[in-house]
Design goal:
The protein contains eleven helices and four strands. With about 270 residues, the protein is α+β, with helices and mostly antiparallel strands. Helix 3 links the parallel strand 2 and strand 3. The longest helix is centred in the last third of the chain and has 27 residues.
Length: about 270
């Protein structure tokens, strides 16, 4: 049982999805994803695969939600692997009206189980990913609580990435490019804002609207901007001017506040 904040009675994360929660309309997409991963990587390279996001949580909206998956390979992914993943994404997006895009993350098992990723990618697999195929890596990982260490290692790198996000925004000139970037930036800011206050709140939610409301309890001066980001994460095309506003206002404040409260995420090689 949970206490209503995404944790069990002992204060540990409860895994946020399950295959039996996948809405019926999305079942063919998920089945095809599993088949394509098996066909391309085969048992010699594919260790396991996972769904994450709204589809395994059972909250996906047909024609609006995207398909998100993480693929754990027995060795580190190559450039050819990443290219193949982009091909699978395009195939699924073209073949199934139910999804508005697909995204596959590829990682080697050694990296996912490394000490450096213990409170970032490993936590993500153990708590936010739903096993699709292969042995579940969560069996080899610890249980997690909503601590400042977890906050730091999951989202304490916005300050590093902010210049690159601004460069991408300046280079995005077409409406589809701006829409995709707005959705990505808005999602990131809402999740970062939530994890900023997560240890104080003492719980977890993957719902972006709820995340913004939890954030608003602790930072009312920035509440409306965070709520706007949550709305744009859902329907980015409706907010064509918000991207620049977020990157000029909410994002730099959030990056600085995160460093003050939780510190910087450990750099990756």
């Amino acid at each position: 049982m949970t206490n209503g904040t995404g944790l069990d009675r002992d204060g540990y994360f409860v895994r946020g999805g399950a295959l039996d929660r996948v809405p019926a309309r999305f079942a063919p997409v998920v089945a095809q994803l599993g088949a394509r991963l098996t066909d391309h990587f085969g048992p010699d390279r594919l260790h396991s695969s996972y769904l994450f996001g709204s589809i395994p949580r059972g909250t996906a909206v047909a024609g609006v939600s995207d398909l998100d998956a993480l693929v754990a390979l027995r060795d580190e992914p190559t450039d050819a692997d990443h290219a193949a993943a982009r091909g699978i994404e395009a195939e699924l997006d073209a073949a199934y009206w139910q999804i508005d895009g697909a995204g596959l993350l590829l990682f080697g098992v050694d990296r996912l189980l490394s000490e450096l990723e213990r409170y970032d990618l490993a936590w993500f697999v153990a708590c936010l990913c739903t096993p699709l195929g292969g042995p579940d890596l969560a069996a080899r990982l610890p249980r997690y609580r909503p601590t400042s260490l977890l906050a730091r290692e999951t989202n304490g790198d916005l300050f590093r990435d902010l210049p690159g996000l601004r460069e991408k925004a300046a280079a995005a000139t077409t409406e589809p490019e701006r829409t995709r970037l707005t959705r990505g930036v808005a999602r990131r800011l809402v999740r970062t804002g939530f994890t900023l206050v997560m240890p104080r709140w003492g719980g977890w939610t993957s719902d972006l609207a709820q995340s913004a409301e939890v954030f608003a309890r602790y930072y009312p001066a920035h509440a409306e901007r965070m709520r706007a980001a949550a709305r744009a994460a859902r329907t980015p095309a409706a907010y064509p001017k918000l991207l620049d506003e977020l990157l000029d206002d909410l994002a730099p404040w959030l990056a600085d506040e995160y460093l003050t409260v939780h510190g910087a995420k450990a750099p990756r090689p």
